């Protein structure tokens, strides 16, 4: 509900010229075709339930990128990333990890090694350096 209200407010804030150009672009028939991307490194996010995206368009997208992973969000509607951001963020994080991108820029294996090195360099309280 909040996502729909937010989008409605965004549309209300558009001036007439911007709204007309967006509507014109949205309803002008055109096609791009498949992009030359490594499809095995792609993830398509799809929300469940009723959306304004026609089912035929979803099928075409899946056909163009047949090797891509499909992340089916449980959140429905047109703006699941606004109404259920945690779920959408989880899928994005999984996708980024598969691509070798990690929070903080440190892969999990390197992070464990860095923490281990950090703790081995910290002297224990009450112990002098000769006891280690």
Question: Short description, anyone?
Answer:
The protein is mainly α. It contains six helices and two strands, in the order ααβαβααα. It has a two-stranded parallel sheet.
Structure commentary:
This protein has 132 residues and is mainly α. The chain has helices spanning 2-13, 16-26, 55-64, 80-83, 85-98, 108-121; strands at residues 43-48, 69-76. Strands 1-2 form a two-stranded parallel sheet. The protein is extended and about 65 Å long. The chain starts with a helix and ends in an 11-residue tail after the last helix.
- Output the radius of gyration: 24 Å
* Beta-strand residue fraction: 5-15%
Q: SSE string, helix = H, strand = E?
A: HHEHEHHH
Q: Give the low-confidence spans.
A: none
Strand order of the largest sheet: 1-2
What is the tally of helical segments?
Answer: 6
Defining traits:
2 strands, two-stranded parallel ribbon, mainly alpha
Indicate the topology:
Elements: H1 2-13, H2 16-26, E1 43-48, H3 55-64, E2 69-76, H4 80-83, H5 85-98, H6 108-121
Parallel strand pairs: 1-2
